[in-house]
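Re: that backbone. Tokens:
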């Protein structure tokens, strides 16, 4: 029915897979920090993170309307299924609810949400998105911040530093790859992303360099005995292997389809990175 279709589009605009990954990530962080028994705090944290991310995803789609008409014409706002006004109100409702949920969390975590995450999300959507590297950096930083936020909620931030770093670097490489994939639509919309400003070859070189750096750096926690062998196995299969494939794909071709394939591989690598940290921290010694 028509009503069901509208509801489905309002769910789709949130990017439910991203929301689900975020919720599972909070659960994984809580388990690493031995904080699973505090159920109310866990629920408040999951709700806060999911409301913020849902709101940020909608703000992103609002700003991307012009480019998405070319790059992703089936997105609810680009396809004009949801109006800009309705989407704006929806995003505000989610973000304000997320900010409200913070009153139920420890003050340090609430302050990070109010003073860092919220302003950065808004400034990114309005301004930073179109600045090469800065936009990619903010998105990656906010993803990494999710782990530090969990560390503050459960009052043990140190074990969250490595996951935050890995999430930051994998997201940064993926954001750059998405810029390469979206070059046509972005160019026609007058955006100035890194590949548009500095050329496709430079962007590909940066992706290759960052992929290699991320691959090498992410092995260090195993070798300095922070995580067990249960970190290394999923890391090699789920992070190192996709990163290596990305490097080879880009060395062979700089095409849009290479960027699309690489973007999917990097999303998988990000999820596998979270899994390897979880298994490395909770299984074995």
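Recovered sequence:
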């Amino acid at each position: 029915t028509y009503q069901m279709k509208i509801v489905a589009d309002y769910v789709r605009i949130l990017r439910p897979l991203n929301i689900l990954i975020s919720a599972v990530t909070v659960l994984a962080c809580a388990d690493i920090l031995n904080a699973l028994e505090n159920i109310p705090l866990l629920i408040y944290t999951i709700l806060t993170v999911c409301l913020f991310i849902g709101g940020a995803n909608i703000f992103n789609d609002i700003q991307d309307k012009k480019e998405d008409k070319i790059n992703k014409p089936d997105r609810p706002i680009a396809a004009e299924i949801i109006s800009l006004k309705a989407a704006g109100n929806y995003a505000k409702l989610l973000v304000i609810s997320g900010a409200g949920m913070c009153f139920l969390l420890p003050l340090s975590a609430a302050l990070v949400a109010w003073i860092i995450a919220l302003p950065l999300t808004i400034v990114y959507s309005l301004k930073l998105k179109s600045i090469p590297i800065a936009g990619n950096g903010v998105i990656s930083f906010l993803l990494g911040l999710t782990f530090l936020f969990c560390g503050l909620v459960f009052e043990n931030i140190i074990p969250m530093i490595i996951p935050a770093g890995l999430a930051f670097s994998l997201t940064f490489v993926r954001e750059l790859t998405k810029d390469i994939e979206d070059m046509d639509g972005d160019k026609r919309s007058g955006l100035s992303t890194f590949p548009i400003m500095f050329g496709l070859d430079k962007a590909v070189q940066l992706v290759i360099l960052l992929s290699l750096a991320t691959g090498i750096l992410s092995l260090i926690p195993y070798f300095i005995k922070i995580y067990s062998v249960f970190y290394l196995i999923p890391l090699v299969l789920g992070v190192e292997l996709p990163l290596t494939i990305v490097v080879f794909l880009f060395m062979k071709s700089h095409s849009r389809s290479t960027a699309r394939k690489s973007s999917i591989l990097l999303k998988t690598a990000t999820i596998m990175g979270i899994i390897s940290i979880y298994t490395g921290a909770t299984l074995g010694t």
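The chain has 14 helices and no strands. The first helix runs from residue 2 to 12.
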